[in-house]
Amino acid sequence: MLDYTKIAPEKCEFIEIASEDEIQNGDRLHIEIDGQPLVLFNIGGEFFALADLCSHDDGPLGDGELEKMEIICPRHGARFDVRSGKALTLPAVVDIPAYPVRVKNSKVEIGLPPVD
């Protein structure tokens, strides 16, 4: 499963990333958790987190252009849904990890899936 947003929140370990007001509408924040590059987006006041990694060629994805709810890979133009990580266009055919995000006490937190 790559769409970790579907995991029950109580099963995730939430990591505080930033204050809610640090990431304004339209902004993104590049972070690393446990060696994994992630990108956190604020789109219309909603927060979304994805792996910062295009599944087509393992290139960085987070600097790509946003069009509505799609991030476009800056290398080859593959598109992914920021809500689920679903690959929407070629050359990508594999989804990328999407993580649950919550705001708690004005802090933005990303949920990590349970370790099996």
**Cα Rg:** 13 Å
* CATH class identity: Mainly Beta
Q: What percentage of residues falls in helices of 4 or more residues? A: under 10%
The quaternary structure here is single chain
The number of domains is: 1
Distance between the termini: 13 Å
Major sheet strand order? 2-3-4-8
CATH topology: Rieske Iron-sulfur Protein
Low-pLDDT residue spans: none
The global form is: globular
Helix and strand succession? Answer: EEEEEEEEEE
Count of helix runs: 0
Q: What's the average pLDDT?
A: 93
Tell me what the CATH architecture is: 3-layer Sandwich
Number of strands: 10
Structural class: mainly beta
The fourth-level CATH homologous superfamily is: Rieske [2Fe-2S] iron-sulphur domain
Largest sheet descriptor: 4 strands, antiparallel
- Beta-strand level of the residues, as a percent range? 35-45%
